[in-house]
Design goal:
This protein has 442 residues and is of the alpha/beta class. It contains 17 helices and 14 strands.
């Protein structure tokens, strides 16, 4: 089976590579010539554990190809996946220009039946817009070629995306025809031989499912952060509370960890887009609006703890461990670290940062914000803490879990440790002479 995937960002490249791993002949398409040239030379544009080796292996097996032209391959493929970006506009709505551009190209170049599958996260009703664009381009050509559209939202976790794709909890597919259903069943069957977990539904429901899933997870995060903040005020321990409610089968344990707010490419964007969709239809998503407000405030919680502890922060040296929005990725979109750095720079702090993967991405972002000269990029965790008045744990990378605290005690000027992910033992650090604060721990 031959397919094309348009867009070689996070979703497109992971999806294309995993399809190729299961024997599908895949061509990944991107208008960015530099990105395609790099991929042809085994230079991967994103960090995802295991992805580089899988790309190289499938290229060598001649199952994975890269091009800048969809028109070159459209006559050879049965299915085209659209995995292009849908960045948020200023009003929070999803920008569909790249999605509709893919539809336009297909309408202009298709010569036989094509199934166009939207894998990008798009608002309800996008499929109808895509169909209209394809039909209009066909009308301009004076042709009437049968095609189908489908929705196949992704549910990949950055840092564990390959496992998610190869062994999915479920595959959600929205279709309008039996032919589209048969093609999608054929494509996904190898992944799900032991337990065929494809959930077919109408396209609007599939489009909504992605937003609803991410918004529910974001809600759980903000809820627990709200509880954590209250725990500190009343003398409770949010870790105990989490265990107490997580054992309830109706609630479960996932996404109940308190911290310093969610970030990344999905949750912030999708929550905003769903709120916007509701407003377009005359409805207020009051719960999600509160979720967003809590998350914005939570990204400042470590800064507020610093101010409470020191009063003025001018000329203080602050060490930050972790820059990416979560471990096992270099993604810093909407990362709490960026909010923290902004606040610290406004307070005229000296900042020393370390991240095992996201340093280059951080340098790119801070250069664009004219902040690069104000931040010291450390070579390791101990270099970051040199002469620091306080250490802030922002991203819970594995290599941060068991540092040699005796070395850190000697290299730091102060003794304050603010644990933004609650991964350290309060009693242990206090016994070593540190002042420790977590999130939701009194």
């Amino acid at each position: 089976m031959k397919i094309a995937i348009v867009g070689t960002g996070y979703v497109g490249l992971v999806s294309g590579t995993c399809f190729a791993e299961m024997g599908v002949d895949v061509t990944c398409v991107d208008v960015d010539k530099n990105k395609i040239d790099n991929l042809k030379n085994n230079i991967i544009p994103i960090y995802e554990p295991g992805l580089e080796n899988m790309v190289i292996r499938n290229k060598q097996a001649d199952r994975l190809h890269f091009t800048t032209s969809l028109a070159e391959v459209i006559d050879d493929v049965e299915v085209v996946f659209s995995a292009v970006g849908t960045p948020p506009d200023e009003d929070g709505s999803a920008d569909l220009k790249y999605v509709l551009e893919v539809a336009k190209t297909i309408g202009q170049t298709m010569n036989k039946y094509i199934l166009l599958v939207t894998k990008s996260t798009v608002p309800v009703g996008t499929a109808q817009k895509v169909k209209a664009v394809i039909k209009e381009e066909q009308r301009k050509r004076g042709v009437d070629i049968t095609f189908d559209v489908a929705s196949n939202p992704e549910f990949l976790k950055e840092g564990d995306a390959i496992n998610d794709f190869m062994s999915p909890d479920r595959v959600v597919v929205g279709v309008e025809s039996e032919k589209a259903k048969e093609l999608m069943t054929k494509l996904y069957r190898p992944f799900l031989l032991n337990n065929f977990r494809v959930i077919f539904m109408d396209i609007p429901s599939a489009e909504m499912t992605k937003y609803a899933a991410n918004s529910m997870l974001a809600t759980r995060i903000s809820f627990m952060n709200d509880i954590a903040n209250l725990c500190e005020l009343v003398g409770a321990d949010v870790n105990m509370v989490r265990k107490g409610i997580g054992t309830d089968a109706r609630i479960g344990t996932k996404f109940l960890y308190s911290g310093i707010g969610y970030g990344g490419s999905c949750f912030p964007k999708d929550v905003k887009a769903l709120i916007h969709t509701a407003k377009q239809n005359g409805y207020d998503m009051q719960v999600l609006e509160a979720v967003e407000q809590v998350n914005h405030k939570q990204k400042e919680v470590l800064y507020n703890k610093l101010v409470k502890h020191f009063g003025t922060l001018e000329n203080k040296t602050i060490a930050i461990w972790g820059l990416s929005f979560k471990p096992n990725t270099d993604d810093m979109r909407e990362a709490p670290s960026l909010v923290l750095i902004d606040k610290l720079l406004q307070s005229k702090c000296n900042i020393r940062v370390f991240d095992p993967v996201a340093i280059n991405e951080a340098k790119r972002i801070l250069t664009a914000k004219n902040q690069i000269d104000s931040v010291y990029f450390a070579t390791d965790i101990y270099d970051a803490t040199l002469e620091a008045d306080a250490l802030l744990l922002v991203t819970e990378w594995k290599e941060f879990r068991m540092p040699t605290w005796s070395v850190i005690k000697k290299t730091m000027k102060g003794n304050l440790v603010l644990d933004g992910r609650n991964i350290y033992d309060k009693n242990e650090l206090q016994s070593l002479g540190f002042t420790y604060e977590g999130i939701g721990i009194s």
